[in-house]
Amino acid sequence: MNQFSMDRRKFIQSSALSALSIKPALKSLQNASLRDEYVKILNPLGRVPVSMIIDDSTSLVNLAYYGIPQFAKVFPKNYLQDWRKLPREIPDSFVVEFIEWCDAHGVKGKYSMVPYPACTGWLHRFIPGWSEEELRKSLDLVRNEVTRNWDIHPEMISHTRVINVNTGLPFGEATPRFMENWEWSQDKSADELTEYLAFALNILKEAGFSCDGVTTPGGFGSRNMSNLATATMEAVNETYSTGEFLEEKGANRYLPGFAKWRLCTGGKLVFVTSGQ
Ligand SMILES: [Zn+2]
Prior knowledge:
- The chain is mainly alpha-helical and 276 residues long.
- 41% of the residues lie in helices and 9% in strands.
- The protein has a domain at 51-240.
- It contains 7 helices and 7 strands.
- The chain has a 3-stranded parallel β-sheet, with no helix packed on it.
- The termini are far apart.
- The chain binds zinc ion.
- Zinc ion is lined by residues 55-56, 155, 159, 217.
């Protein structure tokens, strides 16, 4: 056990205590809503908010081209696509076209930036096959244009092989047990998942992105939801200060009337709503 993991354990314990302290207030709020026949729950502005979720995106790398052969190694019968015929790159010109269309139609949402896409290279360092200048321009495009209306998430670290966070290397075994989409995450503690998620978030932080959540690739943590939920909160709070999050992002960037809540480490329930 190192100093880092000891600190995290203490941190999780104190966060759990903070969460407990707000539980009675939440309970009475829920009970009041259920009991009071005059209370109606209305959508903001009387409309249904819709948010678009873009998965498997990153800078330059076409995750399908590099990821399908890795999935096929694990499940040879399930991944028969001719991945060699796919383009190896998602060009920035396509990202520009897509974002311009979204801006023109008021489309907003979540946009993944896979930090170590299919084990090709690192967003905060370099990606073999593209120049450092090309990567820098691609990151600038997402930072300057995409983040205006889209939340950026890591989609774990590689979206393919599980990475040993102590070495930065993929584990040696190409089986479902060591793929992010399948088994590895299902029996891990909240501590272990926090370490994994924080590793992904730190790459994006160093690449200049502020994230307030993560996207799970495939079934990552799908049978371990409680630990995954705790780990997501801890990893985001550990990587980015919640106080900064609220101040820095402000309210108006979200969908009109869209309410978003998060539990701060201090045990306060905070709503962020748009003023529109
Ligand atoms: Zn995905």
